[in-house]
User: Fold this.
Amino acid sequence: MSLIAYSSIFVLALFGAPIFAVMAAFALTAFYFSGTELSAVAVEVYRLASAPTILTIPLFTFAGYVLAESKAPVRLLRLCNAFLGWMPGGVAIVCLFVCAFFTAFTGASGVTIIALGGLLYPILIQEGFSEKFSLGLITTCGSLGLLFPPSLPIILYGIIAKVDIDDLFLAGLFPGIILMVILGAWSMYQSRNNPKKKHEFSAKEMIGSLWEARFELPLPVFVLGGIYGGFVTATEASALSAFYVLIINCFVTKDISPVKDLPKVIVESLTLVGAILLILCCALGMTNYLVDEEIPMKILEAMRTLITNKWLFLLVLNIFLLIVGCLMDIFSAIIVVVPLIIPIAEQFGVNPLHLAIVFLTNLEIGYITPPVGINLFISSFRFNRPVLELYRAAVPFLLLMIVALLIITYIPWFTLFWFNS
Amino acid sequence: MKAVVIFDDILERFSRYGLISSLFGILGLAVMAIVFRWMGQSPMWIDPLVRHLVFLSAFFGGSLATSKNVHIKVDLLTKLVEKSSSKIVHWLHRNIVALFCFIVCLALVKSGWDFYLVEKEFGAPAFLEIHSAYLVGIIPFGMALITLRFLNQLILGIFGGDPREPHRL
Assistant:
């Protein structure tokens, strides 16, 4: 009987039932068959209200959406162009920086491609980059800043895995830079035969763009400087960022009308947050059941016969997570998979921070992995191109990201640098 | 069907206003907490109140995600259904998923209600003298809101065409 129930839930999940309902159904069924009161599920759901860092999710997401809706993308584009546009690969490098900044704030929810794609794509084409390269670059950049603070997946990972979010923010810095350096080098290589003339370096334009972006520039300082300077906690940084972005864009630059635009931005951003938090609520019941039943330990016992050391475990984990990343969205994957792999990784001696960054890098790659990487579909929709064209455009970037993943996985120093010293 | 559409529209507006009010409440209180801390004071009630507002906003957001059909899904085999030209396949797929979600949410309402009753009997005032039962009551209230959205979807799906088509007044 229980097998039929679980199978039905699994089939419904594959046919597009919302993840939160699938997890709740799983938890309700499990508690029912184990003879536990069903109110136990509600008790687990209520645990969300006591998660100390829960506040960061709506506030950072809201700040990111306000930025995306304002003229901040145009200002930041001008700034990056003035500072980096003269380099070989110029505008492609600019694309990497602007997208990384935005994705860090919007949580790789597709907003980056929607908000910046229309701005960046014509510029890339105009600067002589091929259509294939430009589409692939923007599709990849849609999730590029995922390892940088204050990205939503990092926060969610910290809550689920009970790892300090401040430490996770630090741990992601170098791996995030590695991804950018590799993609930057590829962009430079692609521009080697570019017939277009490089931008002239202009101090005047630099100062002008710096002045124009004066309100956006303090944001990373608020987040990183505030947290690591010991002035504010991650939660307070999220509140200050959201408050600052709201005041600046509604009353100083007046990019967003408090009456016309603001309600729309709030509803859009918090609808996404609501969908994520609902999954988180329902997953608490399910993961608690899995842990109680010692499912991770049973998996570990089965694995021990085949996997004998940490490095082999990490290789298998990468393959597993790449598959997970191209089948599930990042938020569901974090909530479902993290509680299962943490105890196993611990047994193999993998540092929790290293595991977190390897996990998130895999899922970042999952965004552009065919057949169901979500960025491929968002780009296909945004640029009105067949998804197969996007598959072809994304392949070189996918391979480069896998190289970066191997570096991040097998040289833990990049992740743990801040903690070793 | 018009009554269902009107009722769903009322729930939509309620969720929207609830979400907007929650966000301003969360932001205002979170900033206030920082200012208080800088002034050397830390009222103990702000943090739990903010966390419960976030908790409440999850249900308002969930209600809106239901009406916009933007819940996070795996969608692995949905593409197969979408490729099918048969209207019956689409109709069955849409309504089976909505029925499943309705049943699960209803069970969560029951689960939350039972928890509320337990808290009402054995709970105690939490912060600002608010009884813990009312805080726990967010679960049955929020889940009931989402349950009603799925019920409307189901009714409109069975009797009034595709509920995912815009039907706002």
User: Anything to note?
Assistant: Chain A touches chain B through 65 residues (CB under 8 Å). Chain A has a mean pLDDT of 85.
